[in-house]
Amino acid sequence: MLKGGYMGKILRVNLTTKKITTEELPEKIAKDYIGGAGFGIKYLFDEVPGDVDPLGEENKLIFASGPLSGTSAPCASRIALTTKSPLTGAVGMALSGGYFPVEMKFAGYDILIVEGESEEPVYLWIKDDKVSIRPAKKLWGINTFDTQVLIKDELNEQNARIACIGPAGENLSKMASIINEKRAFGRKGVGAVMGSKNLKAIAIRGTGKVPIANEQAFKEARSFMLSAMKKSAHLYPQFSKLGTPMVVEVTSALGIFPSENYITTGEKNYVGDLGVEASLERAKGSEHCYGCPVGCSQMKLARGSSKYISALSDPEYETYYSFGGETGVRNLDSIIFADQLCDKLGLDTMSVGVTIGFAMELFEKGILTLEDTDGIDLKFGNHEVMVDLITEIAYRREGLGALLCDGSKAASEKIGKGSGKYAMHVKGLEFPAYDPRGAKAHGLNYATSYTGADHNRGYAFQEIFGAPFPKAYDRFAAQGKGWLTKWNQDIRCATTDCPTMCGFLMDMALPDVAQKNTADMVSSVSGLSLTPDDIAKIGERVNNLARTFNIAAGFTRADDTFPERILTEPIKGGPSKGHYISRDELKEMLDEYYNVRNWTMDGIPTREKLTELGLENAITTLEGLGLI
Amino acid sequence: MLKGGYMGKILRVNLTTKKITTEELPEKIAKDYIGGAGFGIKYLFDEVPGDVDPLGEENKLIFASGPLSGTSAPCASRIALTTKSPLTGAVGMALSGGYFPVEMKFAGYDILIVEGESEEPVYLWIKDDKVSIRPAKKLWGINTFDTQVLIKDELNEQNARIACIGPAGENLSKMASIINEKRAFGRKGVGAVMGSKNLKAIAIRGTGKVPIANEQAFKEARSFMLSAMKKSAHLYPQFSKLGTPMVVEVTSALGIFPSENYITTGEKNYVGDLGVEASLERAKGSEHCYGCPVGCSQMKLARGSSKYISALSDPEYETYYSFGGETGVRNLDSIIFADQLCDKLGLDTMSVGVTIGFAMELFEKGILTLEDTDGIDLKFGNHEVMVDLITEIAYRREGLGALLCDGSKAASEKIGKGSGKYAMHVKGLEFPAYDPRGAKAHGLNYATSYTGADHNRGYAFQEIFGAPFPKAYDRFAAQGKGWLTKWNQDIRCATTDCPTMCGFLMDMALPDVAQKNTADMVSSVSGLSLTPDDIAKIGERVNNLARTFNIAAGFTRADDTFPERILTEPIKGGPSKGHYISRDELKEMLDEYYNVRNWTMDGIPTREKLTELGLENAITTLEGLGLI
């Protein structure tokens, strides 16, 4: 019997049958997976076969928060959405923040599972234990910001919190996001899954409270956490004042801020245009997620041309990269505008920017011609074209919109002509903003993360912020990165994605105490007795289960790799000049990684490992595939 | 002692001294002016000299609601803002709807008077009897939609209702509006007054209730009103389903839908592009003001080009005209986009559209050249340019933005070259969407309304919907229009602008019972005993007091006139072909109007009339000017 942290209930909504049911959250699942991504992957694995069509009726949307969400734990208003990704075909797990996560807890649910498919557009309205499926035909076609306003008005519930898709999700763009408030379940095309179910939005209003199992212990754990945060070298005032865009200067100094689809990384410097000073000039204050003392979301007001002026948005570092360096664009105002436009249309800023950068390289190489672009001058740096393409993509418009709207991998397959080697993705998920040629643990994480090239599933802060924990690493070295990547992936998973806490804590504030902190916070709030070692084990469990799902989905060792550029073209200039990841280095890192994971050299988890983790169902799956 | 309807309190905020005070609402003022525009004009007259600089410290913003707002009276969530208009120099009274009006009542106030000027940007936060002036530097530059979201977040009050200015108000555009929710205090540049005071926003949250003096009588009056509304030939389902844009077809059939700055009215038909069918194709449901059973605000979703697609807005008939016919634009999607853009930037759609249409005529006539427009092809029908100019205007940008941002009159004065005769305004306020050459009572109302060319101050529904009340009128005739205009102005003022009820009721549902309805509704809610005759008298009182303010501001009979086109160029085609208002007809109408108003032939209210209306202060003012 769960004593605190958890609401103890799973809400299940079937859009085909319109059946709405609740079930109990088993204590064992809470103890083995904590929450968030752990819950999501557990239920995905148990209920969705690996080989289903991500946009078909059998796929599910599993929203799960953690035991800390909705308590006074700082930075815990997070929620994980797990589904099979239409962009990658692998596990599609995306987290969002803001207020929606705690609202679901307040309404009484740890997990919301949406299954089936509605024939007509609908939205879900959850007011505590009153749950209804409502018509949304009138909302179809409406952007995510307006949708939230209209639903609040319709429900006469200004305090409702709403997650919804925009036109991109409706049009099944495989880069579609889900937006709640101004936050996003950004990547892996999760918005298209919602669109495929004809589910426009989920509105929640909760009036409950999250119980605390052990108030005194929780108070102590919380105060330990807050003081650890205060001691951080990066969190205050730097990160609090600048947000993630401060990283532009960090990675530029390392020579790994990617530019022009990774052709010119390190050679061209973007600090003057996209650095801290340019950001601060446009700063308009910060937005906080529920219960967050940091407030890293820095609102910026675009200026300059009439096209961009007055756009207000909070592009993250990754968006500075995807709509900035990656596309060769130096116009920060256009990036702010593009960020807001993506949020409104419900698109992942990262995948969209990288896909546009990819198209720009093809254009400069003559693989895409003026005829293909309908006369558009698709060269690097053309911010007007970049911005225009966002709408084309969201609406899957004939021409470049339809060509690019499912991401760089799908586009390269349509274009052919050897374009695939310029598509910067792993497993279909576009590259993040750390050129792995100068940060090889980042690289190995991209190659092996269960979601594709996803910096957030095992962020190697050791290579970026120099934190010597668990020990210092040479960012250019391949050796040792197998062990480190496993550690980063497991700890990140268990200390942030599952509990659910903000990832920035781990990267910037608490790396050395993250396991202890998570164990204490989760144990005190829930009454479950978790040790720091349990935490590491939970991370490992989730990563192994996700890996097994992906194997069932058809992925093999061959998919744990990089685009050719990373394997063959050294960085041409700057502090990481000359570095790349050779095929031998990739092999060495993968071998080490599989080895420390106790997986076969084909990347298959062993029976021994899965037994140790209590993943009998994963063994059954691999047995069924003849892989174990 | 006021018994109901009124909260009995005036909130006064001085932005210079930061002093916040409350005072009692005198019963006599309630009885003599009812509320809304009546209160506004009474306090403006008493506290603001006619000759002050509208953008100076001495001008005031007087927000006043009526006794019915916040009760269960239908269609009464309205609020009047009265100030000296920077666009006209006359009384600038503008009404808005939505939820802001009732929130002010719930907070406990009938009137909010903002005076003085803050040195730094601030916003006002009114939570019941807790009132504070808060810093708004961070909000400066931010559009009206984002401002509302940010303030709600900052206050952690999702139920707050906010009226605010956008960049246009900050930049003191004399066409700047004030936006609450998606509603507008639209015309007369009231947003610039707020901008001149460095007041970004007023946020209100109220938890009180509006008392009802006589529940039983109110119930009966309300039920009479609702059944009168139901009997209306126009209100349901037509108006409820189509909103004001249905009028495009009505005025087109009469040949008075204005096109191309009134050059081609009647000749060119816009029904195919802007008519009911085109509207319904884009319809996305309706928004209701508080307590309104009609819901005339029809949300429409733009489609077509990437530039406009996904814009969601509710352009009124007047916006169809100003950004449609007036500019020769037939692209409805661009009109929806322009409407939303104006709301976000805080601009009056009517004045902006008409001013752009004016500039287009000058361009087509060669008075503005390609050199003046910086190469922009400013011809009629160019919707892309029309949309781009909106932002230029809001930011007072060098070139066309700075030239046009204070409206057509100011622009014509800067341009010279005889351009003034093409500027379609009265007293600086741009023309509404009824070509007065085919609707002469509309014309006389434009010429004499205390706010300039304002259809809402004395809407001659007799000429548009054919309602034979108080009797049938020939729309082309000049004779009798003096009497009719006085009646329309007084009754409109007293039955809608003061109580405060929605103007559409009067035009479409209740013209024959408006006086009785207002008397019964206001009397029952407030305990004041008003007869239908009292209602007419109140309208007359308010119009006379406003007229006296305008005389003190320097206006004379010579200002009660039309642009030359109306006086000399007949309508060239369609059902109103050949008609215009000759100078003789204008003289005849004015003479009749002054006569029935018991004003001198110079348009000065007589001592006799003012005494009859109890306006001794107006007599004193006119005595001071040597005019009485």
Overall description:
The structure is a homodimer of 628-residue chains. The first copy, chain A, is α+β, with helices and mostly antiparallel strands and 628 residues long. In chain A, 41% of the residues lie in helices and 12% in strands. The first copy, chain A, contains 27 helices and 17 strands. In chain A, the strands form four sheets. Chain A has a six-stranded mixed β-sheet with strand order 2-1-6-3-4-5, sandwiched between helices. Chain A has a six-stranded mixed β-sheet with strand order 8-7-12-9-10-11. In chain A, strands 13-14-15 form a three-stranded antiparallel β-sheet. In chain A, α7 (215-231) runs antiparallel to α22 (514-526) and α20 crosses α23 (532-552). The mean pLDDT of chain A is 97. Chain A binds chain B through residues 138-139, 141-143, 145-146, 150, 153, 158-159, 166-167, 284-285, 287, 299, 301, 306, 309-310, 312, 344-345, 388, 391-392, 394-395, 397, and chain B through 138-139, 141-143, 145-146, 150, 153, 158-159, 166-167, 284-285, 287, 299, 301, 306, 309-310, 312, 344-345, 388, 391-392, 394-395, 397.
Tag the structure with descriptive keywords.
homodimer, 628 residues, alpha+beta, six-stranded mixed sheet, 27 helices, 17 strands
